Amino acid sequence: MPGYEHFGKEEIKEVNDVLETGILMRYGFDGPRKGIWKAKELEQAICESFGCKHAQLLSSGTAALTTAMSALGIGYGDEVILPSFTFVASFEAVLSVGAIPVFVDVDDTLTLDPEAVRNAITPKTKCIMPVHMCGSMADLDALQAICNEHQLVLLEDACQSIGGTYKGKKLGTIGHAGTFSFDFVKTITCAEGGVVMTNREEVYIASDGYTDHGHDHKGVDRGADLHPFIGYNFRISELHAAVGLAQIKKLDTFLAIQKKNHTALKNALAQIPEVSFRRIPDESGDSCTFLSWFLPTEEATKAVVAELKAQNILAGNFYWFVNNWHYISKWDHLKHAITLNSLHPDLKAAVMHHATKDFAASDAIMSRCISTAIGLMWTDEQLKNKCDQMVAVIQKVLNEQKVAV
Ligand SMILES: *Cc1c(COP(=O)(O)O)cnc(C)c1O
User: Fold this and answer.
1) Nearest to 146 by CA among 131, 128, 132, 129
2) Exposed e or buried b for every residue in 42-78, given b needs 16+ CB within 10 A?
3) Catalytic residue at 186?
4) Residue 114: pLDDT band by 50, 70, 90 thresholds?
5) How far is the CA of 299 from the centre of ligand 1 (A)?
6) What digits encode the pLDDT tens for the residues 316-326?
7) Which of 120, 228, 285, 364 is 20 to 30 A from 258 (CA-CA)?
8) What's the CATH class of domain 252-404?
9) CA distance 22 to 239
10) In terms of Cα–Cα distance, which of 214, 196, 181, 221 is closest to 29?
């Protein structure tokens, strides 16, 4: 699953190119950098690999979401609809631009339920933010139809689905803008990093300036650049971009390994009639970083998790329902709107509203779901063992529960 599993001499070579010039910054120093522009080169490679017109690298996926929202004009008073199952970064970014996060249920795709989205639309809604969780996609046709109908912005959080596609297009390039994270545990990594992808020139120009204090990057002399608007510093360094450049060249290999291992594991679990799988709107576009599967009841799922733990083989299996970082049930800091700086009272009230909101539909999905991370380095023997062990655990638990009934 994560690119760090495949770290090697290619990454070292790219980083050394930068170290030899000593120019660690992505802008300026045209002479001493001796033609080494790793961030620019990686942006070019991203445009080519994913088929988008523009790519702006930055320091993290969280910064990418914040930047994309700012560049799309999302801010004070705007509501952003996002799923109850995501990573905390998604709502951190919404709050960072002063907008209102509105969480809605996920369905058996583990992503936004289009009906729940429809029901959440108000005159303040500005943006729908699907999160393509665990390597696979939201129902983008349905969400795009809602966006068109209500003239909303579609921002894809594709941080976890690098290389996935929907009807032939790469995830992250379909909405008004999309983001990837290149943090250490993502499909490809820069150690830390992220990107905003867009086909809209004005969104790209805004993102480019926003990540670098508003610099317009039009002059040859950084000090003489103009600042048409206020920005921040979300720059990526040349060292990080160099790692990413080595990794993007390996992406097709990673995806091929994931697909092979995912298929084997899925075929093994599919022998158990009680196991069902995540619904995938375009099955052929799954990036296969995870296999997400369901058991018939919460009780059976919890028993399987306990048995995996008892047998010391829980590692790599994620029960998101009780996870601190990914599911709304554990976000007490959000529900109490605990921030270090004070929020506008209306925003604070809107955030705290989620403490009493009903997510029974999400619970019914997430309480029965386990996601198994697909390793890049599994040998055939390890893969076979994994399949056998998991099938044995599931069958043991299901048999015990039958006896108990
Ligand atoms: C990792 C991740 C992010 C944030 O990325 P960072 O680079 O770690 O800041 C955002 N959204 C999702 C769904 C993620 O998994």
Assistant:
1) 128
2) bbebbbebbebebbbbbbbbbbbbbbbbbbbebeeeb
3) yes
4) very high
5) 30
6) 999 999 989 99
7) 364
8) alpha beta
9) 10
10) 221
Q: Counting beta carbons within 10 angstroms of the beta carbon of residue 324, is it exposed (0 to 12), middle (13 to 18) or buried (19 or more)?
A: exposed
**Residues 172, 180 contacting (CB under 8 angstroms):** yes
CA-194 nearest atom, ligand 1: 7
Q: Estimate to the nearest angstrom the gap between the alpha carbon of 306 and the chain centroid.
A: 28
Amino acid of residue 184: F
Architecture in CATH of 3-251: 3-Layer(aba) Sandwich (3.40)
Q: What single letter denotes the amino acid at residue 29?
A: F
Q: Would you kindly state where each structural domain of the chain is located, as residue ranges?
A: 3-251, 252-404
Dihedral (Cα; 285, 52, 63, 33), 10-degree rounding: 130
- The ligand 1 atom at the shortest distance from the C-alpha of residue 93 is 10
Phi, psi (rounded to 5 degrees) for 376: -85, -25
Name the closest-CA residue to atom 13, ligand 1.
87
Interatomic CA distance for residues 367 and 328, integer angstroms? 12
